[in-house]
Amino acid sequence: KNYLPMAEATGTLWENKTAHASCNHGFAGHVAHIIYRDILGVHFDPVSRTVDFRPPKLNLEWCRGMIPVGNDWIEAEWKRSGRRLETDLVLPKGFKSI
Q1: What are 7-20's pLDDT values in tens digits?
Q2: Of 26, 33, 51, 89, which residue is most buried, by most CB within 10 angstroms?
Q3: How many angstroms separate the CA atoms of 57 and 98, rounded?
Q4: Between β-strands 72-81 and 62-69, what pairing exists: parallel, antiparallel or unpaired?
């Protein structure tokens, strides 16, 4: 809700909520990490090349995301239907799920 107008206007997230100041997307890196970790449920370590995929218990029906790692991507998705949870995780070569 708060970030959508920013993303629609410039394709980035800003350090301020309004466009009258810097529309720098430097803040977006931190927000993206929080979204990947706390909403998508992906915890990854680029050094050890490990991924722990733990979809959170949120009042959302689904979440899907792609995380850039070098020239490749970690792709994760989860969907809820009642009490049922479906997950999908695609890892780049050399990465492993823990």
Answers
A1: 777 776 776 666 66
A2: 51
A3: 19
A4: antiparallel
Contacts 24+ apart (CB under 8 A), 43-49: 44/69, 44/74, 44/95, 49/94, 49/95, 49/96
What predicted TM-score, i.e. pTM, was given to this entire model? 0.72
| Count of beta carbons in the 10 Å neighbourhood of residue 28 | 18
What pLDDT does 24 receive?
57
Question: CA-CA distances (angstroms) from residue 64 to 14, 26, 27, 72?
Answer: 22, 23, 21, 16
Q: Indicate if the pLDDT at residue 22 is higher than 70.
A: no
- pLDDT one-digit tens code per residue, 35-60: 899 999 999 998 999 999 999 999 99
What does residue 28 show for φ and ψ, rounded to 5 degrees?
A: -60, -30
Give me the sign of the Cα torsion angle 65, 67, 73, 75: negative
Residue (of 98, 44, 48) closest to 74 by Cα position: 44
